[in-house]
């Protein structure tokens, strides 16, 4: 180790072991407890692609059956494991001013048999594609952010096709829910569990739903939710579309405030906020319309805001800036933890894969936040989630990893591909002349 530069790898090992012991009580037998540990280590490892085959080979298993069983046949509740992750995040990252951030992400898919898939708009692709959409909840503070919870969105087309739902293994108790409804359920669960937080944030898909805003007020959770430019608000001088109101604001109504630190400097925008006393309801509190203006392009963004207590402009801007942290979480989880690399068509296996990816991200977030409490040399940026994952693999995973017979794994893969090819040709022969 270079002189003057230290990392506490032993602390990371202890933190990882504690987390795996915590979730381990969700499994009845020692075999799945060992396997889930190996699975998460595989997600943390720098594998070119991540699926049950590559993770099993990395773990030193004789074949992929055990990892596949972990996602399909072994009895365990993914909701209970996510509850353990939520408690872990609250213990290591918990702050009273934390923000719960909701957003969805899409995974591009082929065919129509993967659970939840249809042609729909994906923000990941920026257009309508054949994809799955899942709503995620992220816990964000000034120092760190970690993934907490997830819910797969099922389009209405799936509810008109009972046979398709049965084939995907969707439980009968599952009912159709919009994305804001899924977000509301996850937030309610976090608040009911006592997770320390004071704010919620989300984009237009959530800000345009008045029922979600009403539920957050009922929970006494302040919010900064994005709005469409066509949204109407009532001020002391009348009812206006928010974009019309913004055009009529005088120059003195705008203030230059940073929405947070970026990789290339502070994220400065012009901001204006207007009190909305006519928006009061039985929940009381304080309502505002917050408007953001890009200093270079003039592009506008609008937010509905509420807090049970008075809040300064800087506070609302900080909460709005925290919404971007969910994009950083998605990027880290997809590029480093295989969040979108699953090959699972059914309901249960999708939720289990995603839950274990969330668990791995929560560990990295907690380990990174703990490292920042130590003195750092001034010529280094703080340790990032991606860099810590790299170091954890080199210093902790690799020295203790079981090795497998690489030739036997090559034979197994080619035999599996041969059987699949034979099966495809046989199926084609039944329908083709």
From TrEMBL:
Organism: Micromonospora inositola
Protein name: SRSO17 transposase
Pfam families per the UniProt record, alphabetical: DDE_5
InterPro entries noted in UniProt: IS701-like (IPR039365), IS701-like_DDE_dom (IPR038721), RNaseH-like_sf (IPR012337)
Domain Transposase IS701-like DDE: 27-232
Superkingdom of this protein's organism: Bacteria
């Amino acid at each position: 180790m270079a002189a003057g530069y230290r990392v506490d790898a032993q602390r990371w090992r202890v933190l990882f072991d504690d987390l795996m012991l915590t979730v381990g009580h969700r499994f009845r037998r020692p075999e799945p407890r060992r396997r889930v540990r190996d699975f998460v280590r595989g997600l943390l490892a720098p594998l070119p692609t991540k699926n049950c085959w590559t993770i099993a080979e990395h773990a030193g298993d004789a074949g992929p059956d055990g990892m596949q069983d972990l996602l399909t046949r072994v009895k365990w509740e993914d909701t209970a494991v996510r509850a353990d992750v939520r408690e872990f995040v609250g213990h290591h990252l918990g702050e009273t001013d934390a923000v719960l951030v909701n957003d969805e992400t899409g995974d591009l898919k082929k065919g129509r048999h993967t659970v939840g898939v249809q042609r729909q708009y994906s923000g990941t692709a920026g257009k309508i594609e054949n994809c799955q959409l899942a709503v995620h909840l992220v816990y964000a503070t000034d120092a760190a952010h970690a993934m907490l919870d997830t819910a797969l969105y099922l389009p209405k087309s799936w509810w008109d096709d009972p046979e398709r739902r049965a084939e995907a293994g969707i439980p009968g108790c599952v009912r159709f829910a919009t994305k804001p409804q899924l977000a509301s359920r996850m937030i309610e669960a976090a608040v009911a569990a006592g997770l320390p937080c004071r704010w919620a944030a989300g984009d237009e898909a959530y800000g345009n739903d008045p029922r979600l805003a009403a539920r957050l007020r009922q929970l006494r959770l302040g919010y900064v939710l994005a709005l469409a430019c066509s949204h109407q608000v009532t001020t002391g001088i009348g009812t206006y579309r928010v974009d019309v109101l913004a055009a009529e604001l005088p120059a003195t109504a705008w203030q230059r405030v940073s929405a947070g630190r970026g990789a290339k400097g502070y994220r400065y925008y012009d901001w204006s906020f207007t009190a909305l006393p006519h928006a009061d309801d039985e929940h009381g509190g304080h309502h505002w319309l917050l408007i953001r203006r890009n200093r270079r392009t003039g592009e506008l963004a609008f937010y509905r805001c509420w807090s049970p207590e008075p809040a300064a402009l800087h506070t609302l801007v900080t909460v709005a800036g925290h919404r971007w942290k969910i994009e950083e979480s998605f990027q880290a989880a997809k590029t480093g933890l295989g969040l979108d690399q699953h090959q699972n068509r059914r309901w249960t296996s999708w939720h289990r894969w995603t839950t274990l990816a969330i668990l791995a991200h929560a560990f990295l977030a907690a380990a990174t936040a703990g490292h920042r409490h130590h003195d750092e040399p001034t010529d280094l940026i703080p340790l990032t989630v991606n860099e810590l994952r790299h170091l954890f693999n080199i210093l902790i995973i690799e020295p203790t990893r079981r090795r497998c017979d690489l030739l036997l794994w090559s034979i197994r893969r080619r035999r599996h591909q041969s059987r699949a090819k034979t099966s495809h040709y046989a199926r084609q022969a039944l329908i083709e002349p």
